[in-house]
Amino acid sequence: MNIRITGTGSALPDKILTNAELEQLVDTSDEWITLRTGIKERRIASEGEYTSTFAAQAARSAMAMAGIQPEELDLIIVGTVTPDFPFPSTACIVQDILGATNATAFDLSAACSGFIFGLSIAEKYIRSGAARKILVIGAEVLSRIVDWRDRNTCVLFGDGSGAAILEASESEDHALLSTHTFSNGSFWKLLYQSGSGSRNPASESRTIDERLLYVNMEGNEVFKHAVRAMEEAAVKALDANGLTSSDIALLIPHQANRRIIDATAKRLGIEGDRLFTNLHRYGNTSSASIPIALDEANRQRLLAPDSKLLLVAFGGGFAYGSALIHW
Ligand code: ACO
């Protein structure tokens, strides 16, 4: 039994926040942001737009490409660190918006690796026969957990969603060949958001220290781990499939920082037009970054039939992983 990616979709807020506009908010410059991160602008959700808003839009687009109806879905997985609510899951809200009445729906928490972890779960559901048609989404509204007074973090993140439909199939086109997932919880303190969970509940004093609600990050340390871990995850995927990096037609790494992407690509020897980036337009959209990039590459027809595509992600946890696809 093969697992085919039959549709991809993405959705982004209309509102664009440029580096020049950020210069008005914090002590930063277009030059610094461009040089240190590669980001030029990012999309920001407006009032009345939530994680589920973009997740459902991306899902509809992926379903339209796959040619399937919402009732056909067996499972909906949403990877996110910015769910609409702590509960119910954003996946259940998306199920309701779509009218996917026959699906089981749940969220998963793997930070920027949420989409890869979602693919991995979907792969196992299909291989075991537990499901045939699965919607995997990465969706974030990070702008609502960013401290807009902190130049160290607020320049990095953006909002949006990407989605893919996976189906059980006999065909080898667009087949998901493998997924690999890894976690290293000993580094959780390098990248986290500490408020509103059971350690710092608002329920005790009925208020919460506002600073606990924001992304907390040791950027330099995260940077070093990200490069090493993405290389490790990519090599695992290549080895498992008996491939080398020269077999890869396109590498789509998590879009966190241009320097992380370039360092990873260099270590793997996959550079130039075999490396996909859209970070300059969207910033780091966490779990949404890989599926947005996958959808853009797909719609721009950058993925030739019969080629090999490598996805690799790294994020808070640490949680990291890879997926290899025969397109
Ligand atoms: N504008 C101007 N100056 C800035 C800004 C800014 N926006 N941000 C930081 N600086 C200053 C710092 O204050 C520091 O000044 P100092 O030397 O006077 O103290 C100087 O720039 C250098 O700061 P560094 O943190 O050393 O800069 P670095 O080159 O490491 O870049 C960055 C910082 C962009 C955060 C980088 O470390 C990075 O990208 N790390 C990885 C982050 C990441 O990918 N996080 C997400 C992971 S995915 C997930 O799970 C959410």
Spatial ordering of strands, largest sheet: 1-7-6-4-5
DSSP strand content: 15-25%
How many DSSP helices?
10
Q: What does the oligomeric state look like here?
A: single chain
Helix content: 25-40%
Based on DSSP secondary structure assignment, what is the total number of beta strands? 13
Strand count, sense and barrel status of the largest sheet are: 5 strands, mixed
Q: For the CA atoms, what is the radius of gyration?
A: 19 Å
CATH fold group of the largest domain:
Peroxisomal Thiolase, Chain A, domain 1
List keywords for this structure.
327 residues; alpha/beta; Peroxisomal Thiolase, Chain A, domain 1; 2 domains; five-stranded mixed β-sheet; four-stranded mixed β-sheet; binds acetyl coenzyme *A
Brief characterization of the structure:
The chain is of the alpha/beta class and 327 residues long.
Describe the protein in words.
It is globular, with a radius of gyration of 19 Å. It has helices spanning 19-25, 30-37, 51-66, 90-98, 114-128, 151-154, 219-240, 258-268, 279-282, 289-299, and strands at residues 2-11, 16-18, 41-43, 75-79, 104-108, 133-141, 159-169, 175-183, 191-192, 216-217, 248-253, 308-315, 319-326. The longest helix is centred in the last third of the chain and has 22 residues, at 219-240. It has a 5-stranded mixed beta sheet with strand order 1-7-6-4-5, with helices on both faces. It has a 4-stranded mixed beta sheet with strand order 8-13-12-11, sandwiched between helices. The protein has 2 domains: 2-169, 3-Layer(aba) Sandwich (Peroxisomal Thiolase, Chain A, domain 1), CATH 3.40.47; 176-326, Peroxisomal Thiolase, Chain A, domain 1 (3-Layer(aba) Sandwich). The protein is built from 10 helices and 13 strands. α7 runs parallel beside α8. The mean pLDDT is 96. β4, α4 and β5 (104-108) form a beta-alpha-beta unit. It is α/β, with parallel strands linked by helices. Acetyl coenzyme *A (ACO) is lined by residues 28, 32-33, 36-37, 111-112, 151-152, 155, 191, 217, 219-220, 222-223, 226, 256-257, 260, 284, 286, 315-316.
